[in-house]
Automatic annotation (TrEMBL), chains A, B:
Keywords carried by this UniProt record: ATP-binding, Cytoplasm, Kinase, Nucleotide-binding, Transferase
Residues engaged in binding ATP: 12-19
InterPro entries on file: GK/Ca_channel_bsu (IPR008145), Guanylate_kin-like_dom (IPR008144), Guanylate_kinase (IPR017665), Guanylate_kinase_CS (IPR020590), P-loop_NTPase (IPR027417)
UniProt xrefs under SMART domains: GuKc
Protein name in UniProt: Guanylate kinase
An example molecular function term from Gene Ontology annotations: GMP kinase activity
Native source species: Brotocaccenecus cirricatena
GO cellular component, one term: cytosol
Main location: cytoplasm
Catalysed conversion reaction: GMP + ATP = GDP + ADP
Gene name of the encoded protein: gmk
Length: 198, 198
């Protein structure tokens, strides 16, 4: 048996810094496959097909659902979003770990299909800090920010079911904790017992 | 809620190097409480009461069983051995992690009472290396070594139920993996969710 790839899920409220922490952690884990979501919404300025999203039309999306080619999916503001299954399985077969950056609802769908997935919740150090970050980002209206904060509290309530909980008060420390988790999750008997020789 | 102490169990065949790896790991984790077993056998040359074992008589041992003051116990070669519960609970209450170096059967007893205990199995790199170490130790007869090797194979078969499996091919690396586990096991939502402020 070769090294087995593992699915890691990173969830956390919008504005908690998932992208930044992940980017920092990836420097020590360059082989990890970062899943790219499929969506039916159009690309925004600067978004590249296959990098930020796989931009596909409604027909293609519905076909993926029919063919069980999505590990999770949801509708949001009139568009579909989902995690393509095939690239994930290909990476796992190659022994690569896979990272899914998805929300709590998506995580529940993936976990139902793949109970060996490791779920990590990234939280802001405080609610006021989360609000500050959303305001400073300058991309959302006051109304939108209120919506995001309400949603964040709902998501956080479900974090109790996660395997790990990381507080992003310092990007480098949070990234180091992520890497600790990636490492330790490969210390499992199923993956190592056969390595004891003769 | 303050930092919660956690029970860690280290099992592994006689001769796999549990003591050495643990001693090395403890340098980074000096606060951990190392449980001292109680036994009814007499002290051997150089063994200190309260350090190597708590040496007690049969009466005292049976009283501890009656009063539910042992987390696990077993008889071996006409003597009793067990893990006193009270010092473990006191350490946990102080927020200290606790290490129990016990065999697979003891681990099963503890886990039945404390399902939040984290079980770590330490294995030798190979069976021939284990035999070599037992022979080099020079403390056991050829017969005793054969017995230990048979027992080791029985124990290893049960390692599949453990949370973690570490191969001791290099003491420092194995100790580092132990410390990774000690750290990561405190990244749990139950212990951290309340730390998100306001």
């Amino acid at each position: 048996m070769e090294k087995q790839g593992k699915i890691f899920i990173l969830s956390g409220p919008s504005g908690c810094g998932k992208g930044t922490v992940l980017k920092s952690a990836m420097r020590e884990h360059p082989d990890m496959f970062l899943s790219v979501s499929a969506t039916t919404r159009g690309p925004r300025q600067g978004e590249i097909d296959g990098v930020h999203y796989h931009f596909i039309d409604d027909d293609a999306f519905l076909k993926m659902i029919d063919r069980d080619q999505l590990l999770e999916h949801a509708g949001y503001a009139g568009n579909f979003y989902g995690t393509p299954r095939i690239p994930v399985d290909e990476a796992l077969d190659q022994g690569r770990d896979v990272m899914l950056e998805i929300d709590v609802q998506g995580a529940q769908q993936v976990y139902a299909k793949r109970p060996d997935a490791v779920r990590i919740f990234l939280a802001p150090p405080s609610w006021s800090e989360l609000e500050r970050r959303l305001v400073n980002r300058g991309t959302d209206s006051a109304d939108k920010i209120r919506q995001r904060l309400t949603r964040a509290r709902d998501e956080m309530a479900l974090a109790v079911d996660y395997d790990y909980f990381i507080i992003n008060d310092d990007v480098e420390r949070a990234a180091a904790e992520l890497n600790d988790i990636f490492r330790v999750e490969h210390f499992k008997p199923a993956e190592r017992m056969h390595l004891v020789k003769d």
